[in-house]
Backbone:
């Protein structure tokens, strides 16, 4: 190093230190990480083994804390690439919530939108704005932003579901409000199944107009998603990247059920391997049925029913299964599409299409 190089570096470093005191920083030291050529996510691929690892912990949580004490008895699925963040991806939160027989989780509402995907148990409910929604494995349930919701289990089995919320998005915007309900459990204002009957039979009450961008359907039962996937699979011709894949919709718009979160369910035929695929929405998968592997870049995840795993943004993904398999998934694709950001690439025969 020459004397002039040393002095240039010294001058620059002392400049950086000096301006830091005035709340300034140089862009040129950071330009490429601030405006990367392609997504540089800290999110890592991760897999939660439900039966072997997570389930015993959830049931221990059931012994050491009541649903009432906890308010929500949930084990957060935290991405190890985002330590301390309570986030599973940069934009989304996920957790596994346990409600034991006879328990209730008290009413509240918040700006954050939530989805539930039922992992085990049958017959517990989530009440949304006074309507109880009964939940069974594989059902997809919505609690849109600012709707009152409480949970209760009047069945004789423990219930576990996957919670997916846009908590990190709301906290990014500093736009979050929350309010406890006056009563622990909401009064029933409509009979169970009311919104399903009104809005999910390809009919709408004649003068009904959507008040917001949320789906009026509160529950998408697995029976119905399974019927669609089975019919598609009987028809044959699976998509090379997705097998047979459908998206859950708001019937009033044909768009996503909630403005920030998109949700999907797909069936992979027996002995199928998908073509490599990537997209900008980091995605959380929950295994409904079947056994298989997912390669995320060079990382291999071996999955079975009730497991959860994450595919980070722009990582090439290949699913392979021995048995027929069904995967539920959700991501922030809804928000990205609204903002004109969402991208995908299909890698067919090694070519990017
Ligand atoms: O059920 O309302 O996992 O408010 C995190 C925050 C669940 C809920 C979570 C919540 C809920």
Residues:
């Amino acid at each position: 190093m020459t004397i002039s190089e040393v002095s240039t570096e010294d001058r620059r470093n002392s400049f950086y230190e000096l301006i830091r005191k005035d709340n300034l920083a140089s862009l040129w030291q950071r330009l490429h990480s601030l405006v990367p050529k392609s997504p540089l996510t800290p999110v890592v691929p991760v897999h939660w083994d439900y039966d072997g690892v997570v389930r015993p912990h959830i049931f221990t949580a059931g012994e050491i804390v009541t649903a009432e004490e906890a308010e929500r008895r949930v084990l957060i699925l935290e991405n190890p690439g985002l330590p301390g963040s309570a986030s599973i991806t940069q934009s989304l939160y996920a957790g596994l919530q346990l409600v034991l027989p006879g328990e209730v989780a008290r009413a509240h509402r918040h700006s954050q939108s939530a989805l539930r995907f039922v992992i085990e148990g049958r017959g517990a409910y989530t009440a949304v704005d006074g309507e109880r929604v009964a939940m069974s494995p594989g059902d997809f349930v919505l609690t849109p932003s600012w709707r009152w919701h409480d949970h209760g289990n009047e069945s004789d089995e423990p219930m576990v579901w996957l919670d997916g919320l846009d908590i990190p998005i709301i906290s990014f915007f500093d736009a979050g409000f929350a309010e406890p309900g006056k009563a622990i459990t909401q009064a029933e204002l409509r009979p169970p199944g009311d919104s399903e009957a009104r809005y999910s039979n390809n009919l709408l009450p004649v003068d009904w107009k959507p008040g917001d961008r949320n789906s009026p359907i509160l529950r998408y039962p697995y029976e119905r998603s399974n019927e669609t996937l089975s019919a598609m699979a009987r028809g044959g011709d699976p998509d090379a990247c997705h097998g047979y894949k459908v998206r859950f919709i708001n019937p009033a718009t044909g768009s996503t059920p909630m403005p920030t979160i998109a949700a999907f369910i797909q069936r992979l035929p027996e002995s199928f391997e998908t073509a490599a695929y990537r997209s900008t929405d980091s995605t959380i998968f929950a295994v409904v049925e079947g056994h298989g592997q997912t390669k995320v870049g060079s990382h291999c995840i071996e999955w079975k029913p009730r497991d959860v795993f994450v595919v980070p943004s722009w990582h090439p993904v290949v699913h392979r299964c021995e048995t027929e398999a069904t995967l539920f998934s959700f991501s922030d694709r809804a928000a990205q599409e609204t903002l004109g950001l969402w991208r995908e690439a299909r890698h067919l025969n090694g070519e990017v299409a």
